[in-house]
Amino acid sequence: MREPRSLVPADPASPVAALSEEAVRTVVRRIVDATLAGGATASPAAATASPAAAPATGGAQASNPAAQERIVIAIGADHGGAALKDRIGQMLAESGFAVQDCGTHGSAPVDYPDFAHAVARLVADGACRWGVIVDGAGIGSCMVANKVPGVRAALCHDLSSARNSREHNHANVLTLGAGFIGEALAIEIVRAWLGTAWGPGRHAARVEKITDVERRYMRQPGEGSRG
Fold it and tell me: Domains, the chain, ranges and CATH?
């Protein structure tokens, strides 16, 4: 399967946001299906380039200057996930995203919390729209990322969990276990995750409760010290 030209999902700031939930999901599915059928022309070197105009994905986005800005995605990994992280970064760059690579860049042993925190902080601060973190199992990085206020990290191991975490839980960071899934599946998970729109509706109140729990413990930092 050839790489997609673009996987830019629906942006809440774009005109698509005025549509119904089902209409938004339909539009996103059509965009993803169309891009999966296209060929990639971007160079992998674009991964570290500064944000620039993204490939047009439709008439509505092409007429919206804000929608033409390339979405920035932070990626990071420990030594166990570095190779897969690099492959994901290449795919994202070829798909029209700008990529902020937080490392690591080799097989020398490092500590996953350092890189998971770096990615999560960029997402929480708004410097990057989304984040993707890879370690051996994906579990530790997910735990670290979710310690950062404003981050909703999801460990996904198949396409269903990827789509569910976006549509139901409004996940903004994806973690993957390089030791549990192969490269091909990991790439498809990232594509599915980015290609699934947040479907608020009945899910919005539940996600807000997640945020409420976060706010509660931020006010009482010592409350969660046990367990």
Answer: 71-219 (3.40.1400.10)
